[in-house]
Each structure stands twice: as C-alpha cells, then as structure tokens.
C-alpha cells in the first residue's frame, strides 16, 4: 500500500504525528513526520512536503531546539512560497514568529507576524461566501493574539489596541452576515454579479495553478490572477463609493487610535480596553490597559 499510495501515507503520517505532538510525544512525532516527509517527496507533492517540514519544525519547537526548528521552518517556507501555497506560508511564518519570541528576538517575531496578517487578510478577501470566510478566519485568531502579545512586549500597547480591534472587527463583521444586516439594499446588482464572477474566476485559476502544469502555464496563470485581482480591487472601490454601508461592512477599515478619540469618545468619556490571556504573558496580573478620551491616551502594562 505504501509503495502504491505514497501521498496517502504522507497525509496519514502527518495526522499521526500531530496526534503524538498533542500527547507530548515529541520525539516519536519527529520520527513519524520524517517518514511522512520521505513519502511526500516520493509522491512529488510539494504542498505535503512543506506541511511535513513545518510539522517537524513544530516538534523541535516543543522540544525547545530553536535552531533545528528554524531550519525546518525555513525549508518549509521556501517550498510553500515556490508553489504559492499562501495559507501554508502564513502558518509557517506564524510558527517562525513563535520561535523568535521564545529566543527573545521580539522585533524579528513582529516582522514575521506582520507578514502573516497581510497574507490572511488578503486570502480572506478572495473568499466569496460569508460562511466560508467565517470558518476560514476563526482558526486564525491565534495569529492576531500573538501579534498583540508581541506589540505589548515591545511596550506598543496603543498599536496593540489597533490590532485587537482589527481582529475583533473581522470576526464580528463576518458573523453579522449580509442577509441579516440587509446591507445589499441599494447596491447595483450588476456590480455584485461582476464581483462574484471575478472571485469565482480567481478561485478557479488558483485551483488550476495547483495542478502539475508547465512553467509557462504557471506564469500565464499568475499574470491572469494579478489582472483579476486588479479588476476586483476596482469593483470593490466602485461598490464602496456607490454603497458606503455595504462597502464599510464588507471591506471594513478598523478605527485607529486618533479616529477612536475623534469619532467614538468625547472629552468627558473614557474608553478602556483590556487584552488578557496572551501567550507571552503567563504571569498573573500582566495585561494591556489602554485608556482613551478625545484629548489624551494612556497605556499601562502590568
């Protein structure tokens, strides 16, 4: 069976190794993931190869062997970028940020996690269904949590507030649902249809690109996707202009500190925001506390 279906064996090994990691059996997981990596390479599936390398890096992370973890994550990252597996790339960068934070390189960790957020939010916009967006975005909350933790570690609590608002805003707006909020009323149906058609074509091109095609075909598809994304941006801009309510809910731009001060609170109102339970701050009483009113801001870290 293994000789006939190496790709299936690789998937099974990755699943088994993940279970072993969850049980704290990190050395055993390393062996299982390494076996899966060999099968992924035998099958010629770079996506599964990248995932296997990322999983090996995770095991080394749990064993606190930072150099080995980084080495495997970098190998996985190079493959995921080469085959343009953006979601896998984001997950690898997230784990690289975790490694750097554990090594005390907070600034380096921030660089990685910023790239993660950019990828996630870019992918999110290319998912047409609101239900699919919600299911895609929910597991990514850990990315935003780590970003806020890192900013707090740098003493950037105010910026941490902005990031936390972005995370909360994305989840809340997706959960609202377009039908419930009735935000499509007044939007030009032709624009909505054009937006949907472009998104479907992008999804089709991305699916085609994952197939084993020639280098010239890959290049042609990449150019087509770039053009489609440009057209999508133009349509979204038109929707924002012609229907501000729909545009503001579907393509949200969370408020920054200055905007919160000017638009949300007045001189007699104070807004308090807390962020609890971060992975980098396990000591009791260690949290972000940002206090805002129209004329001042205070950031306190305990």
Write up this protein:
This protein has a domain at 188-242. 71% of the residues lie in helices and 5% in strands. It is built from 14 helices and three strands. The chain has helices at residues 6-22, 26-43, 46-62, 66-82, 86-102, 106-125, 130-137, 141-153, 157-176, 178-181, 189-209, 215-242, 244-250, 257-263, and strands at residues 271-275, 288-292, 297-301. It has a three-stranded antiparallel beta sheet with strand order 1-2-3, with helices on one face. A hairpin with a 4-residue loop joins strand 2 (288-292) and strand 3. It is flat and about 60 Å long. The protein starts with 5 loop residues before the first helix and ends with a strand. The model is unreliable at 176-181, 281-289 and 294-302 (pLDDT under 50).
Task: Provide a short characterization of the protein structure.
The protein is mainly α and 302 residues long. 71% of the residues lie in helices and 5% in strands. Strands 1-2-3 form a three-stranded antiparallel sheet, with helices on one face.
Largest sheet: 3 strands, antiparallel
Unreliable stretches = 176-181, 281-289, 294-302
Task: Give the strand line-up of the largest sheet.
Answer: 1-2-3
Radius of gyration: 22 Å
Count the E strands.
3
How would you classify the helix and strand content by structural class?
mainly alpha
Total of helices: 14
Can you tell me the overall shape? Answer: flat
Helix content: over 70%
Query: Roughly what fraction of the amino acids lie in strands?
Result: under 5%
**Helix/strand order:** HHHHHHHHHHHHHHEEE
User: Would you tell me the overall average pLDDT?
Assistant: 77
Report the end-to-end length measured between terminal Cα atoms. Answer: 57 Å
